[in-house]
Design a protein that fits this description.
- With 128 residues, the protein is of the alpha+beta class.
- The protein has three helices and eight strands.
- The longest helix has 17 residues.
- The chain starts with a helix and ends with a helix.
Length: 128
């Protein structure tokens, strides 16, 4: 897969998330996908995303930085949203917070098999 092709695939994956198009998530995420070293599988990955959108109704993934080095993608995602209640153990309770997530993906057969993610929790704490 070329650098351009994998970057385009990743952008299509982010668009799928933003549409909450869970029926087509399998086009981007492998059945045996892992997240931060934990075996989630496609069903667990979908459940995690559905929970995220339930807890953050205005959630939108915005690509701030994208580096393509097949079979890997590195991305800095920016969020500007209002999580309900607790978020990452913090009492956000509907307040607007802006934060980023640094995330790395490994693709195999044009689908995500590994995700390593770190959310900038300190940025959220500083806004509360």
């Amino acid at each position: 897969m070329t650098e351009t092709a994998i970057a385009d695939l990743y952008r299509a994956y982010i668009a799928c998330l933003n549409r909450q198009d869970w029926n087509n998530l399998h086009e981007f995420v492998a059945d045996d996908a892992h997240h931060n070293g934990r075996p989630f599988g496609l069903a667990g990955y979908r459940a995690m995303l559905e929970r995220d959108f339930e807890e953050i109704p205005d959630l939108k993934f915005n690509i701030e930085l994208l580096i393509s080095d097949p079979p890997h993608i590195a991305s800095r995602l920016r969020f500007d949203c209002r999580p309900k209640g607790l978020f990452l153990g913090l009492p956000v309770n509907g307040r607007r917070v802006v934060f980023t997530e640094n995330v790395f993906y490994q693709f195999l057969d044009e689908r995500i098999v590994e995700v390593w993610s770190v959310v900038d929790k300190a940025a959220i704490e500083a806004q509360l």
